[in-house]
Amino acid sequence: MESDPRVLVVADADDQLGSLCEGLDRLGWRTVTARSLDAALLASSDLPVDAAVVDLNVIGEGALGRLRDSAAPRYLSILGIGAASQAGAADCDLVFSAYPHPLQMAPRLEQLTRAAVAEEEFMLRQATFAAHGVELPEPDTGETPLQILTAGAADRRFLALSNALTAAGAEAVAAPTPYTAFDYLHERAFDAAVLWGDRSHAPALSIAAGMRRNTRLYHIPLTLYLREETQPDLADLFGRGFADVAAAATPEEETAERVLALARNHRRRQALRRALDAVRSCDLMDAETGLFSRDLFAAHLARIAKGARARNRPLSVCVLRVPANEAIAAARQGGWLERAMPQIGAMVSRLVRVEDTAARLSPETFALALPATDHAAARTTAERIAAVIACTAFDAGRDRSPFVVELDVGVAELRGEETPASLLERASADLPRS
């Protein structure tokens, strides 16, 4: 599957298009180019593309609907390039006024793709629970305006952005310092945050780092709005947790729309998570952690594997196991490790993406089913979760130092017609030997 393209680019040939495709290819978003709608329809129906980047100048009315239909049963996310007033712009999941840098486009493609996968997973999970006699409620996004935190010192352009967000129907809350930003973040729920980048970006980086270390704030999408025309290290900024970086020359209205697109996606994903969490207390789930039980996970993994093959998407399974070492052995005495397992399970539940399925296979072993995720990305996800849990100190009793749990990780990606049981066995076999 390594040679399969992930992005369909529909545009006329030009230097800008070439550099975009080369950049996306280097970032792992392999591209295929179509010069016309007919060529795009053939490509999207024959190839397992996750998303399309479409120059709105080369397509006509109704073209994007046909393009999306050609990819069924996969949902094809579409990122448009052009003016928001152009034909087809309303049918796009997101619109950029000009071709962004590949480092800018890659995380937005990831966000759009994961949103589509989350919707697919919700339908699969509805079917799994229905087969066991449990109704999964529809997601409820609520009726309150989108809540946007804008953090940074007052500035004409930053105020203009707040006004653009308000004009679009969102509620913007201003925080002049990182301290006030965290006060707001701990007091109320936000759908997205915009951080004002000064010359060093230090305040913004401080807020981003703090949010990445907090499991409750981890998933809130962050946008860095640059104060000056500079050439920032985009790879470093995205690595620090930013979902988008808006250049100083970007119009406030476009930046606002990009922030709101992130916010809408975040609210929808939170609604999906709440709908999925609504069944955590049912008898099908693990009583202590609220995660999938072993039997329910096996049933759902079979459904996910079938869906992955139908949509020509990858699927990976991770197994996370409490290691066998002296510190853990000591924590087992008196039941301290047993007392910690519900908290560890709750952390796993909060750290996985909405579309991922987390289960408890045994008292000290967890499993993750990661749809639309290859082996390398799955290992990164599992190791990130293990690293966050390893930062937590658990009580070991009176006069004893707290202990930490550094989970072992095993990963396997679905192969051909492999059975779900075999996939899970390979992931378990990939665990370090005790």
Automatic annotation (TrEMBL):
Pfam family example for this protein?
GGDEF
Query: What lineage does UniProt assign to this protein's organism?
Result: Bacteria, Pseudomonadati, Pseudomonadota, Alphaproteobacteria, Caulobacterales
Recorded hits in InterPro entries, A to Z, give: CheY-like_superfamily, GGDEF_dom, Nucleotide_cyclase, Rev_trsase/Diguanyl_cyclase
Q: What is this protein called?
A: Diguanylate cyclase
Identify the residues that the record assigns to the GGDEF domain, covering every copy. Answer: 313-434
Lineage top rank: taxon: Bacteria
Q: State the organism of origin.
A: Brevundimonas naejangsanensis
